[in-house]
Design goal:
Elements (H helix, E strand, L loop, with lengths): L5 E3 L5 H6 L4 E7 L4 H16 L4 E7 L4 H6 L7 E6 L2 E7 L4 H7 L19
Parallel strand pairs: 1-3, 2-3
Antiparallel strand pairs: 2-4, 4-5
Length: 123
């Protein structure tokens, strides 16, 4: 069962829902064929439910949205990207613990992530 607090994003709604969002946004770049993505899904859903109203959480299927995957240089899945004010502030690729994902999120909408993160090069 999928949480109602996890949005499905694509080329049509990504800019308005993610890049123009006023608060923090967690994007799960995923694929249906990816076993680690399936294992990460319930963790992302739990975080979406617990951070509702503070962090917007959603998924992008890289197979259905190859242009978005290319634009954000997604080279492996799952990849979690955190945006704040339309800017990427954190990124991790691979299966992560719930605590690891929470560490990527800002404590407040205007603050950096809890712990330093190494960002991949962005365009």
């Amino acid at each position: 069962m999928t949480s109602e607090n996890v949005h499905e994003w694509n080329e049509l709604n990504f800019e308005s829902a993610v890049l123009r969002a006023s608060g923090a946004v967690l994007v799960d770049f995923t694929a249906g064929w990816c076993p680690p993505c399936k294992r990460l899904s319930p963790i992302v859903e739990r975080i979406a439910d617990e951070t509702w109203g503070r962090v917007s959480v959603g998924r992008v299927d890289i197979d259905a949205c190859p242009d978005l995957a290319s634009k954000f240089r997604i080279r492996g899945v799952p990849t979690l990207v955190v945006f704040l004010g339309g800017k990427e502030i954190a990124r991790r690729t691979g299966l992560m613990s719930e605590e690891g994902i929470r560490a990527l999120l800002p404590e407040r909408d205007d603050s950096p992530p809890h712990s330093p993160t190494k960002l991949e090069a962005t365009p």
